[in-house]
Amino acid sequence: MSSSSTIGSALAALTASGRAESRLAFGCDYNPEQWDPSVWAEDIRLMREAGVTIVAINVFGWAQIQPRPDVFDFSGLDAIIELLHEAGIGINLGTGTASPPPWLSTKHPEILPVDADGVRAWPGGRQAYCPSSPVFRAAAQRLATEVVTRYGSHPAVQLWHVSNELGCHNAHCYCDVSASAFRDWLRAKYGTVDALNTAWGTTFWSQRYGAWEEVLPPRHTLSAGNPAQALDFARFSSDEVLECYRMEERIIRRLSSVPVTTNFMVTAHIRNQDYWQWAPYMDVIANDHYLDHRLPDPHQELSFAADATRGLAGGDPWLLMEQATGAVNWQPRNITKVPGELMRNTFAHVARGADGVCFFQWRASAQGTEKFHSALLPHAGTDSRKWQEVLELSRALGSVRELAGTRVVADVALVFSWEAWWATDLDSHPSEELRYLEQVHAAYRALWEAGITVDIVRPGADLSAYRTVVAPSLYLVRDDEVKAVTDFVAGGGTAVITFFSGIVDQDDRVRLGGYPGAFTNLLGLHVDEFFPLAAGGSVTLDDGATGTVWSEHIVPGAADVVATYADGPLPGSPAVTRNTFGGGSAWYVGTALDRPHLSGLLARAAQEAGVDVPADHGDGVEQVLRRGPDADYRFYINHSDETRPARAAGLELLTGAAVDGLELPPGAVRVVKTKREE
């Protein structure tokens, strides 16, 4: 497994790339197989003009390099690798296993995935395979072995790219092969059928199993299914897709010394992989991120995803493997980026720890599903606004190259759990309007708007480096994870926990004795009944705040009441509390507070804990600090349509000007360097 220091050193080698000075990697996906070889030389010339330092190739190359079961043709891949190498451009080399070729599914249709209704998916898209299929795995291993044997020591190969966006489309397969693999996974976890029955609560609805052969994946049922079964299937599925990565990773490590990774999808619309479990197997943490215009604040979700990716890297720098220069092709309305937005989005990733920025893709495709997906080189070619923006971005990244290797500074941690996401969003809960990620995003947005940078941490993480910890709607939590928060507060820290937290254990079993179960003692209260609000309903608090989605009957014990309900089903009852526990304090929020009041509450809790909250925060200006051995680098990104002032003094790297106070034009990005006294 890779450690945090290994991740940092692997990316440092990538950004140094043989040069004396450090730099930020700047790259893209390239699909030369989509173009006549006569275009390749022009592409490479323009890549050099744009300052491209690394290119991902062979991501979807399986059908090209293995056109028949026993035929391999590396002539095209050999040629493009040599052209890139001669141009001094590094290669992020794909193993080519992202999607099987038509001959494989024609010869072995049993590899095709099956959904919960028993419908088998046909080839023609991508990732048309069952992750548990031994036939697919054997074919992928064979291809990966051929590719790594051929290029494992090539000097141009700087990074291995296993498959692509693993589990994006096929994370859950319900076929008989998957059912057998699921049973094997359950045997390894529980040992006996009796232990499984206990964990799943199968006394309910006559579901008790007498033999392993009776256990199935959570296929479509007439009524709501067993939630513990669904939760374990989600865990199993994440592990199975991870094993698809690991089988190739083992081949690479045997045949090559080049760092290995795959591209995560830490984003609002993909939730099937528990990346806390995946991260230790990566030499470089890499993420793909695209603005999701179905969300109310896409740029704030971008910041959350960047912070979460840094959390997966253990605070070390990380690599943005894919983003878009403009529009994507897969949303209902594919909104493009307005002038200046490409710079803001990219620098938000860099501000939050990315030491490399790459794009999908280099040249916009002329055919296929992604032909209207934006690219560094658009359909209009170099005579386009987008190309000029790309050149401007490349120059800007060059001006902050000294940032490579520095680390983001954060005194606040936000606990985030893929398991809690899966469990919270199961059916048969008090309110279908309560969705885990929405509550996580609400807490993150409140901190963002208060100007507070956070580290995203896993449940049970070491919290000793922080002053404040926020745990939004942490419905599922293990005992050791509860202890981590409790010990943190007892030792002098401040925790803010929001409603529907601590309710169940790892088996989705309710913790009895009143809610919020696991956190009752820490919070100095108990809740005896939930009062979820009607669709579109709201409540008012006595401090003027508004709550939505949720309310509950809080019975304070040792806790002090901070705010009460002024109306709704529980007028006069506590809504927000604060409890002194050991040397610290624990806040509890019993409803979904409106944005200004949640931001104000979190800022208050953080300030009381000694967190430095910028006085000039807010009004759409994003501020983040990266720290190096002898200098601080503070990012200012103005997402608003108005000029905003900022307190800053030092050397502004993008313009090269010394500043003592900033006026940030609408949409502007500034990076101010301040040398620190030893």
UniProtKB/TrEMBL annotation:
Residues 410-611 form the Beta-galactosidase trimerisation domain. This is Beta-galactosidase. One of its GO terms (cellular component) is beta-galactosidase complex. Gene3D superfamilies: 3.40.50.880, Glycosidases (3.20.20.80), Golgi alpha-mannosidase II (2.60.40.1180). Substrate binds at R126, N164, W330. It is an enzyme of class 3 (hydrolase). Belongs to the glycosyl hydrolase 42 family. Pfam families: Glyco_hydro_42, Glyco_hydro_42C, Glyco_hydro_42M. Its EC number is 3.2.1.23.
